[in-house]
Please model this.
Amino acid sequence: MTLRAGTLYGVGLGPGDPDLITRKAARLIEGAQVIAYPSLAGGDSFARAIAADLIAPGTQEIRMDLPMTTDRAPAQAAYDQGAAAIADHLKRGTDVVALCEGDPLFYGSFMYLHARLSAQYPVEVVPGVTSVTACAALAARPLVARNETITVLPGPLDDAALRDRMRAADTLVVMKVGRHLPRLRALLAAEGLLDRAIYVERASLPAQRVLPLADAPDAAPYFSMILVTRGADPWL
Amino acid sequence: MTLRAGTLYGVGLGPGDPDLITRKAARLIEGAQVIAYPSLAGGDSFARAIAADLIAPGTQEIRMDLPMTTDRAPAQAAYDQGAAAIADHLKRGTDVVALCEGDPLFYGSFMYLHARLSAQYPVEVVPGVTSVTACAALAARPLVARNETITVLPGPLDDAALRDRMRAADTLVVMKVGRHLPRLRALLAAEGLLDRAIYVERASLPAQRVLPLADAPDAAPYFSMILVTRGADPWL
Model:
């Protein structure tokens, strides 16, 4: 008799407000026997915190602790260990729910688990609300309409790459702002886009705030974003 | 005695599967005394269909019927009428929940209501799962990782605009494919991107399907999308 393998669910939790979790994600987490999630450098896990009210007592938890370094090898080792622990459950027929901030496939770490496990086990991805639309909602700005285009750029890109893409885009979203804020602000100002640039911090969380980019703090948190909309008549 | 005005909620419903509605959106719809939604040319409303199981008996419904034309004036008239009907409730202190496919501010029609009502009434936007991440989930492809960029393009753009942006993008998502499919496929082939291009139709709905773009039907439905990922090592 062969045992049917468990399914690995990659579940998007949205931008941080537990209320922005989808009904499907909530049901999967509530019913999970085993969950898995990343944490950073021995600290708390943001993903686990978002889902906390849905995790039943007695649920087994697999924690993947990622070191605070840009070197990829230690993180790869953490995902190797996590994937092995997850596989132990899947091979016995138990499903595992991997908790992912935002959407699992949009700048998410779930791809590292998918890469390690999808050849041997069934995997299902449950999409989530991204921080991009959460920021637009908080700023009350339409992101794109009709035939406009939108480009998402990570702040750590170099100046030349950022500048080229800033020029080509209609709506522009800069993620992973953090310590790059002063440089990003200078680049946008040089392109004549500072007037239209909005800074959004921790969208959907209690400490959320929105400011003109011109007034934003030089030291921005990692969960901050810049939004530049320039549709001809976005509100009409 | 002054009456407190009602709030207009613009509520994202996600890509089509009612299970991808967020907990916040579900609660607002279940508790709504008045809902509003667009429908197309006298036909059914896709937004209403997604939310159907949450709409309580007796809920008042404001339907904005949009004509099937690219001329903007008749649609503007439909939103004018809808906004006036919504305002009648808001001014009496009753909240109105506007149902929006996907996310209200991502190629959504909610901006037309926001433009007409946000100066006089409180408005809150509840972000939703977009079809972009739903398509990636179905195709099981990471959209973007690390410092990659992503650009979303509407298929109706002209060849030159599409070509420039196809060349500049890392990950590329083409929305509103419909009858433009053969032209989009030819453009992607000319750029050497056909091998990496995936066609996704009706993601999250029962009739969903994924195909290599090379095998996609020439006559695609409106709710179809092309996904091109070209990260150097997306799975590692």
